[in-house]
Amino acid sequence: MSALAEEYSIRNPGPDPANFPNSAFTLPQGRAYVELSPVNLSTPNSGSSGSYSAGYLLRYGLIDDLELRLFSSGYTEVRGSEGTRELSPQVLDLKWHVLDEDVQRHLPAAGVEFALETEWASPALRQGWNPALSFNFDQGFPLGIAFEYNVGFFRRLDADGAAQFPAALSWAFQRELLGPVDVFVNGYGSLGDGPPSCAIGGGFVWVPWDRLAAFTNAAAGLTAVTPDVYILVGLAVAF
What we know:
- With 239 residues, this protein is an all-beta fold.
- 0% of the residues lie in helices and 59% in strands.
- It has one domain (16-238): Beta Barrel (Porin).
- It contains no helices and 15 strands.
- The strands form two sheets. The chain has a twelve-stranded antiparallel β-barrel with strand order 1-2-3-5-6-7-8-11-12-13-14-15. The chain has a two-stranded antiparallel sheet with strand order 9-10.
- A hairpin with a 7-residue loop joins strand 14 and strand 15.
């Protein structure tokens, strides 16, 4: 079913930062979400530094199937001997809802998302102009389980400033637990250029009112360059 077929609510579509993948759906024309992540923590290990950030995602429906987005990790503290406190890059993002789910043919809803990391950031955290492309999918499973997954790639710079283009995959299984609370398990990974990263975890989304959602997500890293523990707490407001 199209995300636009039901009455407008923060559930439909839900907040994107709650779990790792982004949905295939876009906001209705003229509607907006403000999504904040004031608690975003990762712990250090042998291959990565611990960090804290307070990020945000701003979303606006240009038309029913096209969404304009701006996001950033915002204020960021990188821990350790060479730690810094800076403003992370602003990322311009455009999401296009391409197809609704075809239940009879067992085909997922599909969307395409193009993002561009800019150099609008504090000097220490600038990484150049880095594009990313993601194909987003949503599909209903039996027992009320929603399956969401993204496949794509992104550009990043290694320690020597050379460009890398790793592939990225993220996924989540989500189900209503009771009333306004949904629970999910999720994970992400990257492979190809550079060292691989991978994490798996879970969390919940609570919708106390139609226009407000709160969420949390905790995950454990499975590779040397992935933080041992990742914790996110956030909220989203629909306008």
